[in-house]
Specification:
This is C3H1-type domain-containing protein. InterPro entries: Cwf19-like, Cwf19-like_C_dom-1, HIT-like_sf, Znf_CCCH, Znf_CCCH_sf. By secondary structure, the protein is of the alpha/beta class. It has 3 domains: 262 residues, 4-Layer Sandwich (Purple Acid Phosphatase, chain A, domain 2), CATH 3.60.21; 56 residues, no CATH class; 86 residues, HIT-like (HIT family, subunit A). Helix content is 22%, strand content 20%. The protein has 12 helices and 24 strands. A hairpin with a 2-residue loop joins strand 6 and strand 7. Helix 4 runs parallel beside helix 5. The protein is globular.
Length: 500
């Protein structure tokens, strides 16, 4: 097994890159080598007079010695630098893994989750504010994106925020709390709500001006503990610790026994008694309209076609997978029509923003389809519809995600979904471009049953029962049978077809 990645964490940089990388060189020499540097808190200088040193790195005149990721997108020079980065061709489309500012320097914009050195890293960029700005503050879209991600089964290894969560000192050993930290200023209740839902293994924050390594706490309804690290600013006058090293084994390769280990100094969760933010406070935080976050739709078909008012926002989870774990509690519309457009290959950027920055280079459609006949098709010699050119389930399509395919038969193939609802979630898909499995040729039924029997045996070896279901729409395009597991203690029927 490869050695765990070696990660450096840093507090508010405040544009002091000379001092940061000087300290990095010393730490890397004595305890390295390190793989990556993650920065929280204000990354940019406090005043324009301090920009010269900072811009030497941004503009490539001075080399950045280690891959550096930051979320503190506020301070002097931030609008100019980040606007330029947002327009760069290399940063177009969805870049949850960082927009490149210069060699080895990446901005984590908005909110998101991505894989870094095998670790699952989530982040919330910007600070809480009632006035949403292009840079430096987070939106309600950013918050709700993370809440949707929290529903996914994957354990987040590292969660980065600029501000500390409200209540972090609850149930903590008082002797370990830095002076002044008990004051309520500088804490964020929204961050507290998010971290209580996400339950990361490490939560790292800045902006408080002090170093605080809270004892690990036991999460509610979760087997692992969370460690909170608050980091001080670079070159602070009190010589508080601003750089900290960790080397966690990714949760994805840890055993259940390892994940369940509790340190002897572990405390109860500080968020056990956390209450919901009041409705009035929620209204203050929610912007009237924001297009800073890709997670939800803010352009509807109606708006595109008629120019009518603001669009209702749609749940990405539902549109992309056909279901939403939040159910009736979801804040957003579960729109079957939007899902049909998504399944027909309408560009994700176009549905989300009403435009696509890739333009003609994009291989997806930039128009909504009113009828099934509008979808470009390829036909066989007898005129029968064989497959859709832009359907990513068709093996002949240029949009097929071939790396997700597990096995290919004569009539069906097995693949992993782009957005799995559970671990070991798979799809069984007909090779023929058919709207549902009920319409596939009868002679292919034998092969379908072989796929399902094999999957059932696989899940049985894991002591799990399998359940498969299919969403069938009046104007469906390419069938896909969803195959997921449930623990053996529960009773499921072997086959469920949900007819819409």
């Amino acid at each position: 097994m490869a050695a765990p990645p070696r990660i450096l964490l840093c507090g508010d940089v405040l544009g002091r890159l000379d001092q940061l990388y000087k300290r990095f060189a010393a730490v890397n020499k004595s305890a390295g080598p390190f793989d990556v540097l993650l920065c929280v808190g204000q990354f940019f200088p406090q005043s324009s007079e301090q920009l010269d040193q900072f811009m030497n790195y941004v503009e490539g005149r001075v080399e950045i010695p280690i891959a550096t990721y930051f979320i503190g997108d506020f301070g002097a020079g931030a609008p100019k630098v980040l606007t330029a980065a947002s327009k760069a061709a290399q940063n177009q489309g969805f870049k949850m893994d960082g927009l490149k500012i210069s060699d080895n320097l990446y901005w984590l914009k908005g909110s998101g989750k991505f894989q870094l050195q095998g670790l699952s890293v989530a982040y919330l960029s910007g600070r809480r504010s009632s006035i949403i700005q292009p840079f430096g503050t987070y939106s309600q879209d950013d918050v709700d994106a993370l809440r949707a991600m929290a529903e996914e089964p994957e354990i987040v290894d590292i969660f980065l925020t600029n501000e500390w969560p409200s209540g972090i000192t609850n149930k903590a050993v008082e002797s370990g709390i830095p002076p002044g930290v008990s004051d309520s200023s500088g804490f964020d209740s929204t961050v507290a709500e998010l971290v209580s839902e996400i339950k990361p293994r490490y939560h790292v924050a800045g902006t408080m001006g002090v170093f605080y390594a809270r004892e690990p706490y036991i999460n509610v309804d979760s087997s692992h503990v969370t460690r909170f690290l608050g980091l001080a600013p670079v070159r602070n006058k009190d010589k508080q610790k601003f750089i900290h090293a960790i080397s966690p084994t990714p949760a994805s390769i840890m055993s259940a026994v390892e994940m369940c280990k509790k340190p002897p100094n572990a405390s109860l969760s500080p968020y056990i008694d956390l209450e919901k933010i009041s409705q009035a406070d929620s209204e203050t935080k929610r912007p009237a309209e924001s297009d800073l976050q890709y997670w939800r739709y803010d352009v509807s078909q109606k708006r595109q076609k008629t120019g009518a008012g603001d669009a209702e926002r749609r749940c990405f989870k539902f549109v992309s997978s056909g279901s939403c774990p939040r159910g009736d509690k979801c804040h957003f519309v579960h729109d079957n029509d939007a899902r049909e457009q998504y399944l027909r290959g309408v560009c994700f950027d176009f549905i989300n923003k009403g435009k696509c920055e890739k333009g003609s280079d994009c291989s997806f459609k930039h128009s909504f389809q009113d009828n099934a006949e509008d979808v470009p098709k390829m036909r066989t010699g007898n005129g029968k519809v064989n497959r859709s050119k832009e359907c990513w389930f068709c093996l002949s399509s240029p949009n097929i995600e071939s790396h997700l395919i597990i096995s290919i038969g004569d009539s069906f193939y097995c693949a992993l979904p782009k957005g799995p609802l559970l671990e070991d979630h798979v799809l069984v898909v007909p090779i023929e471009h058919a709207p549902n499995t009920l319409s596939t040729p009868s002679e292919s039924e034998t092969e379908l049953q072989k796929f399902l029997s094999s999957l059932k045996a696989y899940y049985k070896n894991l002591d799990k029962e399998v359940v498969w279901f299919e969403w069938i729409y009046r104007r469906g395009t390419h069938a896909n049978l969803q195959v997921k597991y449930n623990f053996a203690s529960c009773s499921w029927s072997d086959s469920v077809h949900n007819l819409q």
